[in-house]
Amino acid sequence: MADLKIQELGKTYPGGVTAVSDVNIDIADGEFIVLVGPSGCGKSTILRMIAGLETITTGELQIEGRRVNNLEPGERDIAMVFQNYALYPHMSVRKNMEYGLKNEGLPKAQIAERIAEASRTLRLEDYLDRKPRQLSGGQRQRVAMGRAIVRDPKVFLFDEPLSNLDAKLRTQLRAELKALHNRLGATFIYVTHDQVEAMSLADRIVIMNHGVVEQIGTPMDLYLRPASRFVADFIGTPAMNMFEGKLSADGGSVLVDGGHTFGLNTPVNGSAGTQVVIGIRPEHLHRGDGHDIRLPLTVGFVEQLGADTVVHGTLNGGSEALSVRFSGVQMPETGSIIELGCAAENLHMFDVVTGRRLG
Amino acid sequence: MVENRPVLTFVTHAVLITGVVFLCFPVWMAVVASTHGPEALSQAPIPLWFGDRAWENYSQLLAGGLPEAGGVPIGRMMFNSLIMALVITFGKIAISIISAYAIVYFRFPFRMGFFWMIFITLMLPVEVRILPTFDVVTKLGMLNSYYGLTIPLIASATATFLFRQFFLTIPDELVEAARIDRAGPIRFFLDILLPMSRTNIAALFIILFIFGWNQYLWPLLVTTDEGLYTVVMGIQRMVNSGEALPVWHYIMGTAVLAMIPPVFVVIAMQKLFVKGLVESEK
């Protein structure tokens, strides 16, 4: 268990490609941090730099106050779980978990004790003498976690550990992971491209795009106050409705290209005519005409999800796409018009050029 | 392509049986001939069933030493062949697996250059480089020794290439997991790479053992001492025994004996080989 300090971390490959630049994250002891972003955003590179599998080109990495930039992975006191499990195929489950401890030179009795405890935690006792190929995907991933747990590291690193599993198993293992974190109280750093995993697991999320950090915050920070258009778009399904428009002279409303006007709760600073993006989450739209902001939806197609109904269509029959999420089963006719509205405080506004949040 | 027609079944079996007969007939003849006396084999028709001199022929071969083969007992020649085949096999596997490990897992200057140098030697089999190799062996004073018999045949581009291709299929994550588990390069090689390669090693062992066992030209060149003759050379010497008639019953007996070790290796290794194939999963 330990805190991590990541300062101005950067990675440039010999060919001149910059994978990651200027990353600053302070991770507290026992925190569950999730790095999330689309593929190629550099999240795995950061994790691999923390692990020591990738060299650090610029910046500094400290684990528990100690600079570890130039330490071998084995010397950093970390453990890592890989997407494809990376179990040693010729070793039994027990041997897989033992291997790192043996290399550390731990006494036999202590090794046996740790393995017994880890296999109890992960319900692997019956499989200790099996080979990885005799196990299912979920069991293999549990063995990989067991291999990490027995080492009792300061930091646990997870590189998309659930991506190779089917949806049901993923949900189950997600819960187990969260429980494991609570039990161990260790620092977890977890990489995923799945926003549901990020939202449900993280104490804090680091959301990345094109090798830079877009926002660091709790899941609710990211959901309620996304710092940029990218974050707003990435977090939440279905994705946030976005409308480009121009700020009015008094900064109190926005005229969308389709001819629709959004009144703002609190005026923002900015010269008249500034190009902005208005965002509204589909679940913040409600039926009725008594709202601050009113949006008529022309129904295109309907997704029935059982608990929810997602209706996709266009704003007032124009070219702007608009979707809404109702709870429960609803069956609107294609082509019909639904009067929708939302509270002004649920509006998000971003600068078109920089993508940063306004107001 | 799964059809169930009696005529086709008959035809396929007929073809297969014919093939088996063609393959096995010479072996059968060798076994049969080694149980007859010299007279039975020098007249037509030659016998197709066992004679009564098996015991005599084989005890003479194994113990006595034949003047036709330079007086060296077959046992001695078999031993020489075995030493040569085993040293070549183990040497080839050891050297090629280590060089493949270096080429795949370590970054050093001219890495690809070295790989291509090894690869290009695939085009130079023993026969092509036999004169310069002989020259080197002579100058090193290795004629008439087990060193001269084995060392020049140990380098193997084929095996290096095979191991390289296999190592490239091992996922990087496994190497990374080992690094996190504090396994250094030697640990990783011994604990992970070597056990994972056992299928390939078994397959190579079969091929290389037979290659080493069947060497004829090279031992013929570097050995003049009869105590170092190999069994394959022995057979050839018996056939070309100058004025006298070839002693076919002894020649065939030697051939049968010479077949035993390779057959044994194939049978023993095949189990491991197939087991490895079934089990291997990365």
Topology (SSEs and partners):
The complex is a heterodimer of chains A (359) and B (282).
Chain A: E1 4-12, E2 18-27, E3 32-36, H1 43-51, E4 58-63, E5 66-67, E6 78-81, H2 93-104, H3 108-121, H4 137-150, E7 155-159, H5 167-184, E8 187-192, H6 195-201, E9 204-209, E10 212-217, H7 219-224, H8 229-234, E11 241-247, E12 253-256, E13 261-263, E14 275-280, E15 286-287, E16 293-304, E17 308-315, E18 321-327, E19 337-342, E20 348-351, E21 357-358
Parallel strand pairs in A: 3-8, 3-9, 6-7, 7-8
Antiparallel strand pairs in A: 1-2, 1-4, 4-5, 9-10, 11-12, 11-14, 12-13, 14-20, 15-19, 16-17, 16-19, 17-18, 20-21
Chain B: H1 6-33, H2 38-41, H3 54-64, H4 74-105, H5 111-120, H6 130-139, H7 146-150, H8 157-169, H9 172-180, H10 185-196, H11 198-213, H12 217-222, H13 231-239, H14 248-279
Helix pairs in contact in B: 1-14, 4-8, 4-11, 11-14, 13-14
Give a summary of the structure in a few sentences.
The complex is a heterodimer of chains A (359) and B (282). By secondary structure, chain A is α+β, with helices and mostly antiparallel strands. Chain A has helices spanning 43-51, 93-104, 108-121, 137-150, 167-184, 195-201, 219-224, 229-234; strands spanning 4-12, 18-27, 32-36, 58-63, 66-67, 78-81, 155-159, 187-192, 204-209, 212-217, 241-247, 253-256, 261-263, 275-280, 286-287, 293-304, 308-315, 321-327, 337-342, 348-351, 357-358.
Secondary-structure content class of chain B: mainly alpha
> Please, what is the average pLDDT of chain B?
84
Q: How many β-strand runs of chain B?
A: 0
Low-confidence stretches of chain A: none
- Beta-strand residue fraction of chain B: under 5%
Quaternary state reads heterodimer
CATH topology of chain B: MetI-like fold
Largest interface pair: A-B, 27 and 20 residues
Number of self-contained structural domains of chain A: 2
What is the count of helical runs of chain A?
8
Tell me roughly what share of residues is in helical segments of chain B: 55-70%
